[in-house]
Amino acid sequence: MSLKSRQALAILSACVLVVGVLAAAGITVWRDFSPYEREVLEPILNPRLGLLIMIGLVGAGAAAVMMKSFVQENLAAPAMLADELGLIVGTDPARRLKPTGSPELQRIAESVNLLADQRRSLQEDVEVRVREARLSVEEERNRLAALMSELNQSVVVCNLDGRILLYNNRARLQFKALSDAPTAAGGGEIIGLGRSIYMVFERNLIVHALESIQERIRRQSAQPVANFVTTTRAGQLLRVQMAPVLSAVEGETESTVSGFVLMLDNITRNFEAETKRDQMLHSLTEGSRSSLANLRAAAEMLEYPDLDTELKDRFLKVIRDEVQGMSSRLDETANTFADSLKTRWPLDEMLGADLVAAAQRRVEKKLGLPTKLEDVDPDVWVKVDSFSLLQAISYLASRLSDEFEVREVRFRLTSAGRLVHLDLIWSGQAMSTETVMSWELEPMAFAGESSPLTVRDVIARHDGEMWLQREKTQHRAFFRLLLPSATPQDQVDASAYLKQDSRPEYYDFDLFKQTEASHELDDRPLAELAFTVFDTETTGLNPSEGDEIIQIGATRIVNGKLLKSESFDQLVDPLRELPESSTKIHGITPEMLLGQPPMSKVLPAFHAFAEDTVLVAHNAAFDMRFLQLKEEGTGIRFAQPVLDTLLLSAVIHPSQESHRLEAICERMGVNIMGRHTAIGDAIVTGEVFLRMIPLLAEMGIRTLGEARRASEKTYYARVKY
Amino acid sequence: MTKKILIADDEQNIVISLEFLMKREGFIVCIANDGQEALDLVRSESPDLVLLDVMMPRKNGYEVCQEIRAEPALQGTRILMLTAKGRETEVTKGMAMGADAYMTKPFSTRELVSKVKFLLDIPA
Questions:
Q1: Fewer CB within a 10 Å sphere, N or C end of chain B?
Q2: How far is CA A547 from CA A169, A533, A542, A591, B73, in A?
Q3: Verdict on whether the full-model pTM lies above 0.80
Q4: Angle, alpha carbons A582-A586-A589 (nearest 5°)
Q5: How far apart are the C-alpha atoms of A682 and A688, rounded to whole Å?
Q6: Considering only CB atoms, which chain B residues are within 8 Å of A294?
Q7: Is the dihedral of CA A162, A167, A170, A173 positive or negative?
Q8: Smallest CA–CA distance from B9 into chain A, residue
Q9: A389: Cβ–Cβ under 8 A, 6 or more apart, which residues?
């Protein structure tokens, strides 16, 4: 029964009650009268019957009025309170009750308001905590990523399916070096978020390593790691250490492996060095053994008294030959293997000029001694333990300053073949050799720093030498430190770091949750898939009449993020002339295409780049046509599913007339930049596509299959190219 | 009866000494400069003992050793390996290939003589 009818019923009952009671009273009294009394009263009452009824009605009315206010207070007001309360609970936690009605109701309302306040603050507290937790997780991730990017070792983190979740810059550079594809992808076709590590390593190798890790975990080994060495396609030797990523599962005490970390070391060079050392040892042992045998035998023969002169001469000749042979072999070995013979102290390779600059800073700051540079060869690389070496230099400078009142030191760095001369120069008198000796042999202590090492220890650590040399004509002297040189490192590293203006998207831990779906891609939500968004520039519009691709640009979307740092951007020599009219559109001139790889080289790299992803392009049919015409010649097929942003736009905005990329960008609020370069258009298309995913979801289009079916139904899909 | 010894080594500088030494001890000496020649001479000259170097051209000492041991007619031939390969693994291999003794270069000529005599059952 509704509130209104309950109210009406209550009022009506009150009226009926009053009228009933009055009528019953009248009737009862009437019955009680004697016939005589009735006769007397009837003529008195009869004319006043109206008045009596009136009194009854008034009574009923009064009851109705009283009941109404009672009902208002006890039915309507609580009902309203209940409604308001429902609003607070359900929709608007900030809403508060107005204390109205009876004092009891007002007290209830006040208490409810208090409860609501408490609830609100609790909720806010929880939200704050959640936000804080999320922030700290985010921060930790960022810190981890930052740390990783600084690491000198290549690190790749994968989930159990071998999908890459994180990699650092070092790993990217290493894979770039391993890549045998043209420059375009820069190793990006091998390493990228969501890509499979099995592109690099044989699946069995990883599976085997994982198994042995599982086994170690089962045996509760303290270090459940696995090591293996493998060769890459380019013939490099990689040493790989694998460690598990463990995640605790609720309700279980043991943690399970949810992924793995690979630490990669390119040991090709080390291996070569080892091999060389091995050769050296071999030539020193076995080579010497034979010669020594010859020598010893001959010498022992010479001891026989019954030797004739001719034989004696022959044995002597053997001895001369062998001694000479051994000497020259020893020299040769020493020269050839000089590098391998160096002490095993781990030395860092650094640019000589950097070392000198560091020495300058240290001497000036620690000792307050002015410094100057003389000839410093900018191309020289040294192999040093920079900390101890800088200590030694500062120590020498401090003694010069303290004991010989040297007021300024200068540095000079020159190359001398396999060695480098680092000179510490000063004007004024030179000390005696004994003094130098004592400086060399005392543990280093200066300006509050002290070390158990001596200068000689430091020099020995570098397998170097040091001496004092005088320049009498200029009235000055210098300490010369002989240090090992290093082969210059490629500066690629530095430029690769500089090129990126923002920290690139090198990690995506959400991929941990992804597992290799056994079900078809079609059933998977768009938001979960990896996409390669691409665009091409061509010589013209008719591939069947000989028009060719001259540029491919592509970028990747993984887990709903556009990975601009994992892009593919390559010009292609079309092996035909380029119509001037097309240059107006894409701005690519024939000169720009000179020396670029032909499609037969670029297509395999692009195919690898797009492997395991869904292709996305604007007006994809056009680009796909060009690619498909190459299938026969190159044997490369793009068999993966394709989505077209043009068709999807028609799905989302069927009434709009234009589905050109510019028009879509305007509708979706995507900034257009660098249009009509393949990579620029690919990025814009990617942004557009990302914004389409939630819009499609609102229409109930969530999976790849649904998106494809919806696309096929649009008018535009029926147009053939 | 005078025993015959084959010296198989491609290094002339050791052959000179060994030849002199063995002749002086009263043996008949023949010389091979590589593995194949050594094998041929073992067959044609049937020496009582071979001083066999491992590192030789054409056929190395291990192969020579193995082939000698594979021919029943040559079973009486004693083999003393003389080599610069001094690692335990190589000594083991030499013995496994059928050498009767193994001496690592450099060796003492006196010891060599006594070993040869021991192998040929000649009292020192």
A1: N
A2: 39, 22, 5, 18, 81
A3: no
A4: 70
A5: 10
A6: 11, 13-14, 17
A7: positive
A8: A290
A9: A355, A458, A462, A481, A483
- Asked if residue B17 belongs to a domain, the reply is yes
Burial class (CB in 10 A: 0-12, 13-18, 19+), A696: buried
Chain segment A577-615, per-residue pLDDT in tens: 888 888 877 888 888 888 888 888 888 888 888 888 899
Looking at the domain assignment, is residue B124 inside a domain? no
Cross-chain CB nearest to B11 (options A285, A290, A306): A290
Question: Of A274, A271, A185, A188, which is closest to residue A231 (Cα–Cα)?
Answer: A271
Domain count, chain B: 1
Task: Report the residue of chain B nearest A305, measured CA to CA.
Answer: B24
B83 in a structural domain:
yes
The whole-angstrom distance between residue A721's C-alpha and the CA centroid of its chain comes to 40
Kindly state the greatest CA–CA separation across chain B.
37
The structure tokens 């008045």 sit at A51
Active site residue A676: yes
Exposure string of B50-59, with b = 16+ CB inside 10 Å and e = fewer, is: bbbbbebeeb
CA end-to-end distance (rounded Å), chain A: 67
Q: Which domain holds residue B26?
A: 4-113
Rounded to 10 degrees, what is the CA torsion of A93, A99, A101, A105?
70
Least confident of A96-100, A216-220, A420-424, A467-471: A216-220
State the residue for tokens 């091979």: B32
Query: A112 Cβ partners below 8 Å, 6+ apart?
Result: A81, A85, A88, A97
Task: Return the pLDDT at B79.
Answer: 92
> Is B119 inside a domain boundary?
no
**pLDDT above 80 for A235:** no
Residue A713 in tokens: 């139904």
Q: Which two structure tokens, joined as six digits, stand for A521?
A: 């891609």
Domain at B76, CATH number: 3.40.50.2300
Residue A569 CA to its chain's centroid (Å): 21
Burial (CB count within 10 angstroms: exposed 0-12, middle 13-18, buried 19+), residue B77? buried
* Nearest CA-CA distance, residue B91 and chain A, Å: 14
Q: How many Å apart are CA A218 and CA A451, to the nearest integer?
A: 46
